[in-house]
Design goal:
Blueprint: H1 9-19, H2 30-42, H3 46-52, H4 58-68, H5 73-77, H6 91-96, E1 100-102, E2 108-110, H7 112-119, E3 144-147, H8 151-158, E4 166-169, E5 172-175, H9 179-188, E6 198-200, E7 212-215, H10 218-231, E8 233-240, E9 248-259, E10 262-267, E11 272-277, E12 281-290
Helix pairs in contact: 1-2
């Protein structure tokens, strides 16, 4: 993951202007400009507030880069890029603000300090509106509590709109929705949960209903996909761009049909109908959650 030190001076100065960091012109000295940009990106709310005003697709692309690491433009946008100059929209919006950077290999990567600023979940205390309200407690409804092993993991969960999570500590968040609704939303977004206890699946000895099952290898994957369609349960796939030779992506799929070694269904990563070949699936997991998007 690149950091601010990998950026050119003109890119740093441009980012400082667009982010409104400080008064006057950005520092002309490279070291001073780097320090200013690091402080700006790590400042509470800078990255998150900017992404709230970002053009469509920019926020999702940044979150995906945080999770997946350096990624080709083709996988982010579904179209090519000749590999020089400014990135195509909406990635150019992120690039101008130093949220992302193009590596020497031509991959797009999230800048380390921008990731740290996005994952910073320290919440400032709001001052009391008046002396009469000072010291009084505020009670809000919470349907469930989510606890993450680290702040970066929780930051990913906070981006899932259907979960409606709000951070109350670096690794703790609450939601007004029920636990089952939050679990379903997080699973659909590919966020792993501790209660997704997985066992190895075999065609002759399937696990108990409601238990996640892992499958590796064509034979086991076929058995798992057939059960997923028959039982109407979601699957999580490690899917390769080509037959085990391309980049892999994690995605949750609502399976509709499985025949001739092809699974068709709704892909939550791509938000649309997709077809998946067995020989491109490196790992499959049968989830307890039911299909959310039925076949059309």
């Amino acid at each position: 993951m690149p950091d601010v030190g990998a950026l050119e001076l003109d890119r740093i100065q441009q980012a400082l202007r667009l982010l409104g960091a400080g008064a006057g012109d950005p520092p002309a000295n490279r070291a001073a400009a780097q320090r200013a940009l690091r402080d700006c990106l790590r400042g509470y709310g800078t990255v998150r507030s900017a992404l709230e005003r970002a053009p469509e697709g920019a926020r999702g692309a940044f979150v995906r880069l945080m999770h997946d690491g350096p990624t080709p433009v083709e996988q982010l946008l579904g179209r090519g890029w000749w590999g020089h100059g400014t990135l195509p929209p909406p990635l150019d919006w992120l690039q101008h603000r130093a949220f992302v950077h193009v590596t020497q290999d031509g991959l797009v990567a999230a800048v380390r300090e921008a990731c740290e600023g996005f994952s910073d979940l320290t919440l400032p205390l709001e001052p009391a509106a008046d002396e009469a309200s000072a010291g009084r407690m505020q009670v809000e409804k919470a349907g469930c509590v989510v606890v993450a092993p680290e702040a970066a993991t929780l930051g990913r969960a906070l981006t899932v709109a259907g979960a409606e999570l709000r951070a109350v500590a670096p690794t703790v968040a609450v939601s007004p929705r029920s636990p089952s609704a939050v679990r379903a939303a997080l699973r659909s977004a590919g966020v792993p949960l501790t209660d997704d206890t997985a066992v190895s699946v075999t065609a002759g000895e399937p696990a108990l209903p409601g238990t996640s099952e892992d499958a590796v290898g064509p034979r086991a994957i076929r058995a798992l996909l057939e059960r997923a369609v028959g039982e109407g349960r979601q699957v999580q796939l490690e899917y390769y761009a080509s037959s085990r030779g391309g980049a892999a992506t994690e995605r949750v799929v609502d399976p509709w049909a499985f025949r001739d070694d092809l699974l068709s269904g709704y892909c939550h990563l791509r938000s649309g109908e997709r077809t998946f070949a067995v020989d491109r699936i490196g790992h499959a997991r049968l989830l307890p959650s039911p299909v959310q998007v039925p076949a059309t």
